[in-house]
Every structure is written in structure tokens, then in C-alpha cells.
Amino acid sequence: MGSQWGDEGKGKVTDILAEKADYVVRYQGGNNAGHTVVVGNETFKFHLLPSGVIHGKKCMIANGVVLDPRVLIEEIEALRERGIEADLVIDPLTNIILPYHNVLDGISESSMGKSMIGTTKKGIGPAYEDKYGRRAIRFIDLLSKEVFRKKLHENFELKKKTVENVYNQKFELDEHQIFEEYTALAEKLRKYLGDVSKLVSEAKDKKVIFEGAQGVFLDIAYGTYPFVTSSHPLSGAVFADVGIPPRKLEVVAIVKAYTTRVGKGPFLAELHGEEGDKIRETGNEYGTTTGRPRRCGWLDLVMLKYSHRLNGFSSLAITKLDVLSGLDKIKAATSYKMAGKEAEFPLTIEQLEKCEVIYKEFNGFTITGKEKKYSDLDGNAREYLEFIEKYLGVPISLISIGPKRSETIIRKKIGFGGF
User: Fold this and answer.
1) What is the pLDDT of residue 417?
2) Same-domain pairing of 276 and 373
3) d(Cα 393, Cα 307) in Å, to the nearest integer?
4) 169: domain range?
5) CB burial class (10 A; 0-12, 13-18, 19+) of residue 115?
6) Pair 210, 2: CB distance under 8 Å
7) Which among 72, 207, 258, 312 would be 20 to 30 A from 269, CA to CA?
8) Where are the alpha helices (DSSP H) in 318-364?
């Protein structure tokens, strides 16, 4: 799971773990997320397919996901062109994104003016609104022409009134065209229908990875609200979103060696100027889904402590340590002060904006990308990592020093990974 604002490098870590897994299950979010996996000289970018698909693992999309069939079919066909056939299961209760969700996402965001959230405009928020408004079209509905026709008509009329009477804009979609397009998409996806909840519940002797999208601080309840996503990227959401009873999970927290966020919202450890620009360019910090430049800053340990409280980290996977290579000095946020007093991570953005950040400074280090084991790392890099570990009270299991699978140091065993 992403421990910060997303974009921590979950795709690479999931890909490494997936080699030893039986099932990889995506449990929340939609194609507003993006995972990048580098295998040899090939780069794969996913928005809906779980990263384990490259290993030929059985991959599942659970009911907590909102699914755009157009995007999923593009990903499946792009993989097929590269000689990979997706072994995929889609839960029947997965909610479907339709064209009117994209329209409403764009109109709603534009209408907010200076208060814009910074949504990807992929229809994610409106799709989740329909889910909780009890009017969603689910994958199982899409597979029945009669049910789909009825539900589409009811939704279409409501969306048309909303666009025309609330936003005073022209509604240019065609109901019949959507019905025909999505009926054809449904037939392409029909073979992937399967009860993910049942499969995972019965997986007594299977090794299962639950892959989250986004990150903790984009959680709809616990993130920097309202600058958040529309689902729960938390570890505990696995149970409701997949449909399994609570049980002990090993929670691998993906932690970027610095902090980034896309879109608007408070970011106390943000760097403005040359240092932030250097990290962005060195780390290629541009959104996988949108291409938007990410805001960059120092690692915020106050955030991560709160993140650990919400999710119960078993271990940390530190990514992009190599991006900090060559900097003279590196900082990490170790405490906040509000009104002169030390404060934990605040619950509101109004409180957060009143906080002052206290940093600890570290000497810079060099990463060559050829380091194979922990002891090969520059001593200053080890000091930085060990401070993170001690501050959070969580062991570091994996350190990524480059985008390739081979550019990874395994420090401690991760669950069934066999490391």
C-alpha cells in the first residue's frame, strides 16, 4: 500500500512480490491510479490491471474498484500485442464507469473555480457517488442487456437533468450509442467474470497480494480532505472491498525516500525552487495517468507515523533512494509545531496549514545502482535509512535504488516472498 500521497512505486514492489504469489488482487480505486513496472528494457504502465499480470499470475479486480471497461480492454489488448495474455477475474459487484461520469467529473471540477480539487477527470468520484447513492451499474448488470438498458436509462435521464439544470450546460451524450458501445465491451469482458470474494475466501493454501491504489493521505476519510480520492486506500479496506472477514495481514508500506503529491492541497514539506526541481527531474516525477508534474519535498516522518497508526505497517519498502544521490544535504520532517507547541499530524487542512515543520538534516550520499546488499550502501545512506526505521519503529524490508527489478536490495524477509 502507498503510505504517502500515492506514486510511491507500488507497481515495482508488487511486481517483485508477485513472482512468489498465486493471486494479486486490486481492491480499490480506478484508472485515476497508475503503476509503472520496468522489466529488462521494457516498461509497462497499468491503470487497472494488477502488476502481477506480467508474471502470468491470476489477477483479480475486486468490488471496491470502479472500472472503466474502455481502459481495461485497452490494457488487455496492449499486453496481448506484447505476447502476454491476462489471467484475469472481475468481481460481479464491481461498479462500472460510464461516459456521463467523465462528463460530470469535468464539469464539477471546472465549476469549483479556485477551490478545484485537482481530480484526474476520469469519472472516479461520480462513479463512487452513484455507488453510495445506490444507483450504480455493476459488472453483473452490464452483462444483462435487459438490466443494463433499464438502469442506463434511469441514470441517463438523471445525469441529463443534472448537467442541464444544475450546471446549465448542454448534455451531448447519446443514450443509444452508450448502450451499444458498452454492450459490446461487456461481451469482450464476459469471460473474466468471477466471484473474487469466494475465490480469495477459499484460498487457504494460496499466497495472495492485495494491491492498493493511491496512498493513505488521499483516503476519503483520513486524507487531507477535501483534497482526496473517493475510496479507502487503507489496509483495513481490503476486507470490505474484497469481501473477506478480518484476519491478520502483512502490510508492506511503500515509502518514497522523499515526498511527492499531485494536484492541490497542503504539503508542508514541499520544496519550492531548485532543489524541488532537481528531485522532480531526476526522479521523473510526472503522473503515470495524467502526465502532470508532481510537487516534490523532503520525507515527512510525521505523516508516516500517522500513516502507520492507521494501517499497522509490518515493514517498509523504501523506493527511489537513488533520486537523492548527489545532494549535499538531505532533510526529513521529524515534528510539527502549532501555536508554539508540538503537534501530531492534524485532522483538518485548516490546522495543517497553521503548522510549522521541524527538520533533521543528514549528510548527502551517493548511490551507483550497482549495490547488491545493504552493506554495499554508502554509510550516510544507511544512517538516513536507519533513522527512518528507528523513528517509525518499523523494519525496512526492501530498498529500491533504480526502476529495474535488479536494482533492488532485499534487507529483511517479506512474508511469503522467499527472500
Assistant:
1) 45
2) yes
3) 13
4) 95-192
5) exposed
6) no
7) 312
8) 349-352
CA nearest to 260, candidates 48, 8, 2, 88: 8
The span from the CA of 47 to the CA of 32, in Å, is: 7
What residues contact residue 46 under an 8 Å CB cut-off, 6+ apart?
A: 11, 34, 35, 36, 37, 53, 75
Asked whether residue 217 is assigned to any structural domain, the reply reads no
DSSP 46: E
Strands (E), 12-157: 23-26, 35-39, 42-46, 58-61, 66-67, 88-90, 95-96
> Is 337 part of a structural domain of the chain?
yes
Cell of 270: 514541499
Rounded to whole angstroms, the Cα distance separating 266 from 79 reads: 37
Distance CA 313, CA 404 (A): 25
Q: Tens digit of pLDDT for each residue in 247-304?
A: 999 999 999 999 999 888 899 999 998 899 999 999 999 877 678 899 999 999 999 9
The total number of structural domains that make up the chain: 2
What CATH number did the domain enclosing 187 receive?
Answer: 1.10.300.10
Residue 35 counted as domain residue: no
Residues belonging to the active site = 7, 35
